[in-house]
Amino acid sequence: MKKAIIVILLLGVIAAVAGWGFSAPTRLSESQAATLDEGDPAKGELVFWAGGCASCHAAKGAKGEDLLKLGGGLRLETPFGTFVAPNISSDRTDGIGAWSLADLANAMTHGTSPDGRNYYPAFPYTSYARMSDKDIGDLYAFLKTVPAVEGKAADHELGFPFNIRRGIGLWKWMFLDPAPVIAAPANGTEIDQALWARGRYLVEGPGHCGECHTARDFAGGLILSDWLGGAAAPTGEGRIPNITPVEGGFGSWSAADIAYYLESGFTPEYDSVGGEMVHVQENMARLPAIDRDAIAAYLKAIPPVPPPGS
Amino acid sequence: MPTGMCAVLPVERGVPGASKEGEEEMHYFRKFVVAGLAAGLGFAAIPAQASDDPVAVRQSLMASMGAAAGLAGGMMKGEIAYSPAAGKSAIATARAVSLSFGDYFPAGSDQGNTGAAPSIWENADGFAAELAKFTDATAKATEASGKDGPADVEAFKAAMGPIFGTCKSCHETYRKKN
């Protein structure tokens, strides 16, 4: 009996130590950080739109030039609490103007802040972790060019236990994986491999499409076996659609239909884009046509996720 | 006031079966009341039937708009050969939808199989402003369309484009996600 208690206590201590260890914020290694290069702001602007940064970090309803005023403040009301998008403008005290390139890379690919805290995954670093160093370098150069906006955004409003940032480290340990979700194009499709790979990069990486279009488990991790199979809306009412090539659903869209939708905002039935997807579509419309074709090629050649109950 | 008429009409219809002795006076009284109400409401009685189900009406209006947009988009993309008559038809449909659509969102019609977001009723002024953008765009397009429709596809794009722009701007906030 005494032995059993000692074993249980020991296991508890091990679990606590391991939990503390696994929850530690991770960073790029010194050598990785050393290879980063500040890039080209013009290319970085395309990365900025591909990544949808303005959709959360600009003011709600911002259009045109206002999309570059990245003062934050947008509230994301989720089952875990309310997240408030921070100021990522070039302001040196309230924004991220004082960040190094390694700081940005650590934030985007490791979900770790310059002062070593874990970011909440409302900031989709689980997707951004798949971004190339080059794109992050270009983005860094572009973010220096956007206007400085004064004023910090409000704090997140989260209840216990979600208000413990350290705990997010465990979540990251479970769910942060920069490996591609879909290893290769679905069988039986004759496609341009390079185009498909570019589409995968855009969708799984900067585009962070899976963050809304994939269902999550009880812990808030994406259920990768149902990749892009649709999900309950993370905020507000409605459902985010299944965008896998499933029969009787999105499978009826041709690659040209998908590319046209991303460019114009119209479905093949000439229904228009709505909700948060309006921002996403308008961002995608700013990319070169070949990138929209790449996204379409990828979406046409991923495993179909049958709708629930079929 | 279409819904008001709905409540009244069945009374008139029910009268012949009920017109027995002793009820004659009531019968005439009812007829009188009904006639008065009908006169007061004027031709509001016509949409009264359709608006029994405002959700179905507004969905059929949007379906007409979608069909017109499909024709318009097909011509704009060059997939369908452009003709001024077809261009005029698409614009006329958009005009009719823009003028009538807003009448089919009575309080309580946010339930059931509808894509209408609660924000339509929570922010009625904002929704009205989006509808106004829609009707403004169709008014200008109708004017440009003229008697024979826009002469060529470029003229059609110029007229129809702004109407297309208003779809998204309203759906962003006032339609449930999809």
Automatic annotation (TrEMBL), chain A:
UniProt cross-references to InterPro entries, sorted A to Z: Cyt_c-like_dom, Cyt_c-like_dom_sf, Cytochrome_c-type_DH
Segment forming the signal sequence: none
The UniProt record lists the keyword Metal-binding: yes
Pfam families noted in UniProt: Cytochrom_C (PF00034)
Entry keyword set: Heme, Iron, Metal-binding
Boundaries of every Cytochrome c domain copy: 39-147, 194-303
Protein's name according to its UniProt entry: Cytochrome c
Species the sequence originates in: Roseibium sediminicola
Phylogenetic classification of the source organism: Bacteria, Pseudomonadati, Pseudomonadota, Alphaproteobacteria, Hyphomicrobiales
